[in-house]
Amino acid sequence: MEFYAEEGKNLSSDNSTLILPALSVGNAGQLAVDLLVASLRAERIGYLDDPNVVPCVGNDAYWPSPPGELALPLEVYESSPDALALVQQRSPVVKGMMVEFARNLANFAAANGKKHVIVLSGLEFGRWRNIDMSSGLQIHYLSSSNSDGTDDQCESQGWKRLPEYDPTQRMWKYLNDLAKNTAFEVEDLPYEELGDEDYDASLPYAALFSCLKAKGLKVTCLLCYCSEGDNIPDAFNLADAVSKALGLRPNSSQGNEGGSWVVPFSWKSVYGPPPDMSLF
């Protein structure tokens, strides 16, 4: 994985917390990173190039002013007042290469002075075992602070540790071995023998968690159960969770229809452009 800085810009080791999405159900993690970048007025400082990510190109996701700027698959932003770096990922990882991608990203984070990495992801709503919507959309978490995945700070926020996490379960153990030993190949995994209990460890957030943890970084995964469709409420839920975890204070005077959050311009056409009214 190579970092390419924009002209006159570079990574700052002072921004020791890194936020990034894990691509999953509803792209909730990506949407939450969009909210954070737009609301914190984070500055794009460069791009990451990794052979395990599908190439893509698009238009500026955040601001409407012409001529716009090209958006690429892996972009790096910084918000120095908040001591934050953010990575936005806009295309999927090549099939079968998630662990290799996670290793590369972990190496990048460790080499550039990151101490704490927050991974944002959605989970399949249909697999939520103990549904409790009495307090609204719930956040679940997974942390490297303790071997069982618990974290006192997360618990103090009222969040629940992901119940499906079991470090002694075979797939989590296998993933941990892969993260620690690059001599293992992903192809060694017996795909034909996977059971229901192996599902969570096969998701992108799990590979990122294991590889970042193996590099000695503190990792916090913030997760919400959601379904495909309109995932904007899930994005606000995850962004609010990041704000609580890090003590961020988005400027309410700059927010638009998201309250204190600035909704990116690209969200106005998230379901495609409006119809040409001249048709009617």
UniProtKB/TrEMBL annotation:
Gene3D superfamilies, alphabetized: PAC-like subunit
Cited Pfam families: PAC2 (PF09754)
Keyword Chaperone among UniProt keywords: yes
A single Gene Ontology CC term: proteasome complex
Biological process per Gene Ontology, one example term: proteasome assembly
Presence of keyword Chaperone: yes
Source organism superkingdom: Eukaryota
Keyword field: Chaperone, Proteasome
UniProt-listed InterPro entries: Proteasome_assmbl_chaperone_2 (IPR019151), Proteasome_assmbl_chp_2_euk (IPR016562), PSMG2_sf (IPR038389)
Function of the molecule: Chaperone protein which promotes assembly of the 20S proteasome as part of a heterodimer with PSMG1.
Summary of subunit composition and partner proteins: Forms a heterodimer with PSMG1.
Family, similarity comment: Belongs to the PSMG2 family.
Protein name, entry field: Proteasome assembly chaperone 2
